[in-house]
């Protein structure tokens, strides 16, 4: 009889530890699980789709993942991912797979994103995205390349002058449309030889380059044609010399934008959807409803920045609607025991973060 009671207790204890969902309502798969990676790649595609400035991002590492059940159907992947900046501008139509990752010696930039991705009928769609990005430290760059120049403020007078001089040189050689400066994307001040390296985006206007007398009267074309330029302005005794190359992208026709879908957040939208970052104590998972939240639009980037911070591409949410309509703030994450791991066996080792695909900053 004692053996039977002991066996029953052990069975109950095993059942408690092996339940992957439980009252908390989420599970934690491996960060390198194929479906987790699919959700992360869908998030990166979403981020790049709505980027209008800076450079396309590529997935580098999946840091955390929780999978929530969504009522009445589907699952929501709550992810934290790291991205790296590529050399393709955000407006460049080149497929991401063909874009090179910017290396440490070029002063790499890392993105840090929190995203919620809905999986429904085997398809992934992004419900929420919030990112920021940071250039690599000067110390790390110096370890790899002691003499490599670092990123310079985009509003530095030397940088602005180099971009304007390079664009003027390009327009002087151009037999077609007159191009206007859209943005200065990145810049570096090179000590030897003394020069300024700059990358910038341009857009075609309704003026002919050879005939422009007043650039202020030129207007951007209805069917946008963008370009991306790289230039170096060398300072020499008695003057300066500029070398510039520009790649012009195909004309992009005007597309009537559809109304924002209830499950997709756009950079301009003030209504987004989200799932909870974590459940507060005592809140049953079944009572959660993914509801619209009104959020403030992101502020514009500071003028002294050295790169386009991803935090200005997406806005976040502060709370989530419960079934009763009462908003609550996400609480501290609860510990979830993985299947087959006894609670008294020591610290729980998560199968996260996942593998590094390129390099760690």
From TrEMBL:
* SMART domains attached to this UniProt entry: CY (SM00043)
Q: Keyword Repeat on this protein? A: yes
Q: Which InterPro entries match?
A: Cystatin_dom, Cystatin_Fetuin_A, Cystatin_sf, Kininogen_Fetuin_HRG, Prot_inh_fetuin_CS
What Gene Ontology biological process does one annotation of this record name?
Answer: acute-phase response
Q: Which domain of life is it from?
A: Eukaryota
GO molecular function terms listed in the Swiss-Prot or TrEMBL record: cysteine-type endopeptidase inhibitor activity
List the subcellular locations: Secreted
Alphabetical list of Pfam families matching this protein:
Cystatin (PF00031)
Q: Which GO terms describe its cellular component?
A: blood microparticle; extracellular matrix; Golgi apparatus
Span of the signal peptide:
1-18
PANTHER family (UniProt xref)? ALPHA-2-HS-GLYCOPROTEIN, FETUIN
- Name recorded for this polypeptide: Alpha-2-HS-glycoprotein
